[in-house]
Amino acid sequence: MKAITIQAIELHTVLLPYLTPFETSFGAETDKVAVLVELTTAAGAVGWGECSIELWPGYGQETAETARHVLSEFMAPALMGETIGDPREIRPLLRRFRGNHHARAGLEAAVWDAFATTNDMRLTDCFAQYAPAGQASEGRATVGVSIGIQPSLDATVDVVRQRLAQGYGRVKLKIKRGWDVEVARAVRAAFPDILLMLDANSDYGPADAEHLAQLDEFDLLMIEQPLAHDDIYQHGLLQKRLKTRVCLDESVKSASDLRIALQVGALGILNLKPARVGGFSECLEIYCICVEHDLPLWIGGMLETGVGRAANLAFAALPAVNLPSDISATDRYFAADISEPPFILSADSTLAVPDGAGIGVEVQRDRLEEAKRRWEENYPYGKVAPRK
Ligand code: OSB
Ligand code: MG
Prior knowledge:
Elements: E1 4-24, E2 27-41, E3 46-52, H1 64-79, E4 83-84, H2 90-94, H3 101-118, H4 123-129, E5 140-142, E6 145-147, H5 153-166, E7 170-174, H6 181-190, E8 195-199, H7 209-213, E9 223-224, H8 233-241, E10 246-248, H9 255-263, E11 269-272, H10 274-277, H11 280-293, E12 297-299, H12 306-316, E13 339-340, E14 350-352, E15 362-363, H13 365-378
Parallel strand pairs: 6-7, 7-8, 8-9, 9-10, 10-11, 11-12
Antiparallel strand pairs: 1-2, 1-4, 2-3, 5-14, 13-15
Helix pairs in contact: 1-3, 4-12, 5-6
The protein binds 2-succinylbenzoate and magnesium ion.
C-alpha cells in the first residue's frame, strides 16, 4: 500500500435542511449540521470525512463549535506533515487528546478516504483488508429506516406505510416515555409481519423495567438504548427481565465498553456508530470482537450528509454487519445532498457501495458553498435550534 503525507486540512461547517424535521426523545431538529473535513496529501489526493454532530449536544456531547475548536487547535495540527502507511496509525498520533469522538472520527475518516483514494481502491475494500482474514466486502448493505416521533398514532402508521412502499425492509420507531406501548401496538397491528424495532435514546430508568416488559408482546427485532447513555450495568439487569433483545447504542463508546457490556449481559445486539466510538479504526477493533462473540451487528447513523453516509455504507458492507443498518437513501433526508451521486434504495432494501475509489461520492462545490453560507446566516443557533 502507498503511504500518504498529510499536507493540508480544511474544515467546512455546513447546515443542510432536512426534508422533514426529525424528532427524538431530545426534541426535534430541522437541519443537519456537520463539520466536513477536507484533507489534502502531498501528492495532491483529497480525502473527505464528516464529524457527525447535531445542533444540540443531545445524542452526543459535541457541537459544531466544539468539533471545530478541537480539530483546528489540536487534532489537525498533530497530523500535519505526518506520513501514514496504515490509517490505524492515526489513533496513536491523537492519543494525547481525550474524548471528542465525533470530531476525531471525522478527521480519521478523511485520512481513510485519502488513503483508499491514493491506493485506487474503494474504501469498503480498504476496510476489508484490516478485518479478520477472508472478510471481503459484499459491495452493498441491507438497510432500514429510522422514523422520528410523529404527532399521532395515525400519522405514525401512515409514515410507516410510506416507508414500506419505498422499499425499506426494516422500520425503527423512536419512542420516549408516554409514547411507547401504544405506538408499538398500533404499528404492529397495521403491519403484522415487518421487521420492527424501537429506539428510546436513553429516556427510561431502571424503575421502568416492568413497563418496558409490555413491549415483549410485539415481536420486536430489538429495543435500542432504553436506559442511560452512560450506563452498562443496569442494561444487564434489564436484559434479564426482557424477552426482547437489548441493543446498545449510546452506552458503547469504545471496544473496552463493549467487552464490559458482553461480560454483564447488557446487550444482544450492537449498533456501531463510527462517530460515537471515535472512528473506523476503533470500529475495526469492535468488529473483531463481534465476530469473536457472534454478536449481531449493524451500523447506526446520525442523518449524515452523503460524505458521512458513504463512509458508513462502506463499513456496513462488511460481511459480519448482519442486521439492517440505519443508512437510508438520500431522498429520505435531503432535497439536494452535498455530494453526488445520490444513494438510491434497491427493491431488496439494500444500498450499493459506489464504484469509485475512496468513499465514491464527489462533494459538489456549489452546494458546499451554499450550505456553508446557510450555517453562517443562521449562526448563532437561535434560528435553527431554539434553546427550549
Ligand atoms: O439514536 O440512532 C440514533 C439520529 C441522530 C442521532 C441519534 C440517532 C439517530 C437515528 C437516525 O436514529 C438514523 C439515520 O441516520 O437514519
Ligand atoms: Mg440510537
